[in-house]
Design goal:
- It is a single chain.
- This protein is globular.
- It contains twelve helices and 17 strands.
- The protein has 440 residues and is α/β, with parallel strands linked by helices.
- It folds into two domains: 232 residues, Spore Coat Polysaccharide Biosynthesis Protein SpsA, Chain A (Alpha-Beta Complex), CATH 3.90.550.10; 188 residues, Rossmann fold, CATH 3.40.50.
- The chain starts with 7 loop residues before the first strand and ends with a helix.
- The chain has a seven-stranded mixed beta sheet with strand order 3-2-1-4-9-6-10, sandwiched between helices. A six-stranded parallel beta sheet has the order 14-13-12-15-16-17, with helices on both faces. It has a two-stranded antiparallel ribbon with strand order 5-11.
- The structure holds zinc ion (ZN).
């Protein structure tokens, strides 16, 4: 990780910090645990070997230059560009047209972050996109700028707030960390104020010649534009959470079955209207979000293989799930579904999905994938389900299991297994898990 990384980084450091009550320093110099935010960012870049850094300055930029100089003191090489008038995030970047010719990383100077930059660079290398952007779920998607992403991580739409009443969406929020190719410059007009999320990305999408790829991660990336947020960020920093959430470190997860645990059990659920959340589900998931556990849904959906429902309809059902829990400030970090089913020979079935797969529970394929994507420690993780299939899955994967009394309540009798714990419902199960882990 200490190796020299050839990628250049650009930090948009022109922010004012009015809402933070800053008068004599610009926003990127705000102190987080006695160190300027910008220094936290530069140290993160250096940790990943990114030492060629350009700071785009605006308001009180001289203060930044005075503090960092040419960067030697911090083991990096810093150059500066100062804008005379605020040109928005994209307008500022345009000033690098002709200066940077290779792909480059862009950070916003008002965001506290710690993430595995190498993993994002690897994603970008595979993407052949004009831009790779980081997205993540947050606890207020209803008033956030959202990004619509297809199952292959292609951005299909940017949905700026305010959102239409009744719109269903996935909780993917633009985290404002980008990797761009130099072909991005042709989309930005010089000396004209413009913003990536509102102007440039939609323009690229509309033209349709280039792909924009979304990289989703639960690592800590949060802006600290208000005193409340700054306080939260400081607390997270001091608790060690910001560093601990870097993908290089193991995380723990609560895996949650869908039907009968999150929503009312309906045999072969295919109509979106039949997808109804059980009581206190959003509250339960919010508790998971507020803990150190990831909230990951693991569901068998043989309705696809059986031809009862198209994949896009299943995706709509999951938008409904994310929208409804999002209204109550809860989110899931990832949902995995198995579309397969092994029994062949039915009318209307989708033949290529009628297979013996490794993902259909009680196989552990979906959990294995989650382990790979999120670096999960299974031995400290849990599976909450309503069927013996879920419990068998948990046992097969080596996680602790909690059987809930909603849905099948373990009466499917498919496997002769005993859960580690029982609980009335998802909310009780989460309470139980959090209590066990509190006592450790
Ligand atoms: Zn499968």
């Amino acid at each position: 990780m200490q190796n020299q990384n050839s990628m250049k980084a650009v930090i948009l450091a022109g922010g004012k910090g009015t809402r933070l009550g800053l008068t004599d320093i610009p926003k990127p110099m705000v102190s987080v645990s006695n160190k300027p935010l910008l220094l936290h960012q530069i140290e993160l870049l250096k940790r990943y070997g990114i030492t060629d850094i350009t700071l785009l300055l605006g308001h009180l930029g001289a203060k930044i230059e005075e503090y960092f100089g040419d960067g030697t003191k911090y083991g990096v090489k810093i150059s500066y560009l100062t804008e005379d008038k605020p040109l928005g995030t994209a307008g500022a970047i345009k000033e690098l047209d002709g200066i940077i010719e290779e792909r480059f990383l862009v950070l916003y100077g008002d965001v506290m972050m710690d993430f595995d930059i190498n993993s994002f660079i690897e994603f970008d290398k595979r993407s052949s996109a004009i831009a790779s952007i980081i997205v993540h779920p947050n606890d207020h998607p209803y008033d956030s700028d959202l990004v619509e992403v297809d199952p292959d991580n292609n951005v299909t739409r940017f949905l700026s707030k305010p959102h239409e009443e009744g719109m269903m969406y996935n909780n993917n929020v633009n985290a404002a960390v980008y990797i761009f190719g130099s072909d991005i410059f042709q989309y930005i007009e010089r000396y004209k104020s413009s913003d990536f999320g509102k102007d440039i990305f939609p323009l690229i999408m509309k033209e349709g010649l280039h792909k924009i790829k979304a990289y989703s991660t639960p690592e800590y990336i949060k802006d600290l534009g208000t005193p409340d947020r700054l306080e939260n960020v400081e607390a997270a920093y001091l608790s060690g959470k910001i560093a601990a959430y870097n993908k290089a470190n193991k995380r723990t997860a609560i895996f949650i079955d869908r039907d009968g645990v999150i929503n009312k059990e309906v045999d072969n659920l295919k109509n979106i209207a039949d997808f109804v959340l059980l009581p206190n589900v959003a509250e339960a998931i919010k508790k998971v979000n507020d803990s150190d556990f990831l909230a990951i849904v693991i569901t068998n959906q043989p309705v696809i293989a059986k031809g009862f429902i198209l994949e896009k309809d299943l995706l709509d059902i999951h938008k409904k799930l994310e929208t409804e829990i999002g209204r109550q400030n809860a989110f899931i970090d990832k949902l995995y579904y198995c579309p397969h089913h092994p029994d062949k020979g039915y009318v209307g079935e989708v033949k290529e999905l009628k297979i013996e797969c490794s993902c259909r529970k009680p196989n552990t394929g979906m959990l294995d994938l989650a382990v790979k994507e999120f670096n999960i420690d299974l031995s400290r993780s849990y599976f909450i389900g309503d069927s013996t299939t879920d419990i068998q899955t948990g046992i097969n994967a080596g996680v602790k299991t909690v059987l809930v009394k909603t849905g099948y309540a373990g009466k499917d009798n498919k496997y002769n297994v005993k859960p580690d714990y029982s609980a009335n419902n998802l909310d009780d199960a989460v309470d139980l898990i959090l209590k066990i882990n509190d006592n450790k």
